[in-house]
Amino acid sequence: MTVKFPAAEIRRRTRELLAAHPPATTDRTDFLRARFDAGLAWVHYPVGLGGLDAPRFLQHVIDAELAEAGAPDNDPRRIGIGLGMAAPTILRYGTDEQKQRFLRPLWVGEEVWCQLFSEPGAGSDLAALGTRAVKDGDTWVVDGQKVWTSSAHVARWAILIARTDPDLPKHRGISYFICDMTDPGVEVRPLRQITGEAEFNEVFLTGVRIPDSMRLGPVGDGWKVAQTTLMNERVSIGGARIPREGGMIGTVTRTWRERPELRTHDLHQRLLTLWVEAEVARLSGERLRQQLMVGQPGPEGSAMKLAFARLNQQISGLEVELLGDEGLLYSDWTMSRPELVDFTGRDAGYRYLRSKGNSIEGGTSEVLLNIVAERVLGLPPEPRNDKDVAWKDLSR
Fold first, then answer.
1. How far apart are CA 169 and CA 190, in angstroms?
2. Global pTM?
3. What is the pLDDT of residue 221?
4. What distance lies between CA 303 and its chain's CA centroid?
5. In angstroms, rounded to a whole number, what is the distance separating the alpha carbons of residues 133 and 139?
6. How far apart are CA 181 and CA 189, in angstroms?
7. What stretch of H or E contains 248?
8. Closest CA to 114 of 199, 212, 20
9. 3-state secondary structure at position 15
């Protein structure tokens, strides 16, 4: 493969950006806009959309130069749904107008995104969703309910799938839309969790009118479009880059080193086992990111997300046991609506409770096991008797 932009050229462009917009004296938003316009936001994206059509692996050259110069980032944890799910879907299926309208403010962080996929009756079986979108001239009228929606209380836009043809089988009658969260008929309600927080939300859609120009992909092809979102979502959840002994395992190992009076032989053996598994998962994530440099995310991201959920739950359980009585303390049960999840900045009790959601969000572990079995290992699929039945005729 011919490298269009060698590392030296990428480095030169990055230094030109820093010279023209010194981080110490440039407004944060202005700097991020200039970085996007210079093609240094996500280098593998097309020219004019924050990239240079360059190989993805050159992104680390940009990030290293900017970090050394003290340049601001775009707070990726706060806008993770936009970066990891909405952006790659818009890039692949959006019109030129949609790409120009949404990608820049999305990357800069001026507009937060959320995901309107799961429903009370369509979680693990997402294709069974019942939210309806009915065509009315050049708009679609949407009615239904979504649930487990992260960031809905701060989001400006949402990626939404809705049923546009109930006479087709469940996977074939779905279309994909961009929904304005400020439109009349969109109601966001907090959904309090076991942690005491309302990090998630319920979203009620009543007569919400979405222009047809806000549709991604052909009518009825929403399930295919959603697969791009879901594959990227699982990679973003389970494949985030962390340093050695980073994340949850780092928190427990620090406690182990600093509190020798808590140690027992059994806990030591369990910690060693989980440390090794966490390191294997970290290195597997590095390999997955290398694969992404030359292609689109595939079902392997489901395996990473599976490992992430299992390890988080086992490590947080070990931490509570290690701390003994202290592990049962909970610092703050006050109802709040955070913009992001902070695993490492909270106490052990919070980590233990919050990690229970890791095997649900981004695809349940049970569903992901099926994906890995069928699409990675090539095992026979589970029997399904609803694939060719019209959605309206399914029992609910």
1. 33
2. 0.88
3. 97
4. 15
5. 9
6. 13
7. helix 247-258
8. 199
9. helix
Alpha-carbon gap, residue 174 to 225, rounded angstroms: 10
Strand-pair partners of 96: none
Q: What is the dihedral of CA 315, 320, 324, 327, to 10 degrees?
A: 150
Residue 301: Cβ within 10 Å count: 27
> For 20-43, what is each residue's pLDDT tens digit?
999 999 999 999 999 999 999 999
Q: Which residue has the higher pLDDT, 307 or 141?
A: 141
Tokens encoding 220: 């009825």
Sign of the Cα pseudo-torsion (222, 227, 232, 238, in order): positive
> DSSP string covering 130-179, please?
--EEEEETTEEEEEEEE-S-TTTTT-SEEEEEEES-TTSBTTTSEEEEEE
What digits encode the pLDDT tens for the residues 82-126?
999 999 999 999 999 999 999 999 999 999 999 999 999 888 789
| Confidence band for 1, pLDDT divided at 50, 70 and 90 | very low
Tokens encoding 307 = 């490992």
Distance CA 240, CA 344 (A): 15
Residue numbers annotated as active site: 233
Q: Who contacts 35 (Cβ-Cβ below 8 Å, separation ≥6)?
A: 17, 21, 41, 66, 71
How many residues in the chain?
396
pLDDT above 70 for 347? yes
For residue 211, give the H/E element and its range.
strand 200-211
- Provide the pLDDT for residue 237: 58
Q: List Cβ neighbours of 168 (8 Å cut-off, separation of 6 or more).
A: 220, 390, 391
Over residues 132-156, the mean pLDDT reads: 96
With 60 as the cut, is the pLDDT of residue 3 above it? no
- Between CA 56 and CA 235 the distance in angstroms is 15
